[in-house]
Structure formats: C-alpha cells, structure tokens
Amino acid sequence: xxxxxxxxxxxxxxxxxxxxxxxxxxxxxxxxxxxxxxxxxxxxxxxxxxxxxxxxxxxxxxxxxxxxxxxxxxxxxxxxxxxxxxxxxxxxxxxxxxxxxxxxxxxxxxxxxxxxxxxxxxxxxxxxxxxxxxxxxxxxxxxxxxxxxxxxxxxxxxxxxxxxxxxxxxxxxxxxxxxxxxxxxxxxxxxxxxxxxxxxxxxxxxxxxxxxxxxxxxxxxxxxxxxxxxxxxxxxxxxxx
Length: 241
Prior knowledge:
By secondary structure, the protein is α/β, with parallel strands linked by helices. Helix content is 39%, strand content 14%. The chain is built from nine helices and nine strands. The strands form two sheets. A six-stranded parallel beta sheet has the order 3-5-6-7-8-9. A three-stranded parallel beta sheet has the order 1-2-4, with helices on both faces. Helix 8 packs across helix 9. The protein is globular. The two termini are 20 Å apart.
C-alpha cells in the first residue's frame, strides 16, 4: 500500500509529537506492508499549524535521515493537508503551504459540520490555474453524509476525493463507514489513506485489499485506490475517474 495522507512529520501539528514517535509509526507502517507515505501536516492559516515550506523541509530531512539510520526502507514524500481557504493558491505561491510532492495535486480539508458556501468558486479557481484539488475524507463531512451524491458536482469540476480507510473499520463512527462504502461502490473515491496521527492508532492494512474488493467488485479499482493513483501524484501525471 501507498499512503497519501498522514500526520507523521513531527512537532508541526496534532500528529507525531517527536522523532521517536514518527519513527515508530514508520516502523509499524512498514511492518504492515506500506511502501510509500506522503507526509501531510495540517496547514491552517493564522494558526499554530502553519509551518512554512522551509520549516517543513528541515523536519522532513531530519526524519528521512533518521529513518535511514534505523534501517527503514519506506519512501517518504512531503506535502500539506491545507484547510480550505480563499488564498490557497497564494499560500502555495508564497511557499507557505505545499502541494503534494510539488505536483499539481493539492490535499484540502473542509469543515466537518458546516458546508463552505463558496466551495465551487474555490475549486473552480484552483482547477483553472492548473492545480487539482484532492478533498480529504469526504465521508466525515456532515453535508456528504446527508447526501453522498452531492460530491458528484465537484468531481465534474475536476476535484478528486481521498477517503480514510480507517472509516471502514468504524474508526469515525457508523455514518462515516456507511458513507465511505457508498462512495466506493459508486466510484467516487480516487485515493485511500490512513490519516494517521499517533503511534497508538492501528493501521489495519492486512485485510484492506480483500475488504475493498468485496465493496468495489473491481480489483483494478482497488489497486488504483491504494497504489497506482499515488504513483501518478508523485509523477505529476493525470488521474482519470
């Protein structure tokens, strides 16, 4: 598996608290068959979670070096999970926030309870400039739980969606689990990730492929969700639905 959403980069957000914890999470991931991880610390403008790209890169280089010393072979890449903001493109241009591995793909988080009124306008502007928004864990948003079909209009605009596979294990409650299964069955998810924050969380990847094949009835789709679409992000290639 290749994980496109994680909070393993230490001391930057509500995820890993120190290098020791980061290394332990990476060790657990490798033991569970994860070969590649995108490190996506939160970026929330005007908050304590707003390290700029230079600060993130300094932490990233330390983690890569220490992981190598520990004999870990997992591949690491750097990005952000950016909280929805009218200024996302400016934040990236100013090197405050970061796209995924400096590609055209931007991982974006929405509010859990409230729908963003100008979401269409923000998505339109991002796509118009050549970037592609990946909206994180839609199954956790109240407005998607109420109407899973709602995300189709954003897909048609060019947005993509990343589910948290932990939702399938009921980690975020019954509604999130139900909603993610609906979205997967209807081919509305392009990526799955762990969104792991702390070493106490269980990755539960060993039965994931079989569970996804049962839901989607499509082995190729499962490989896209867990491997191929990740590779396309890293290579900055086009992802089709």
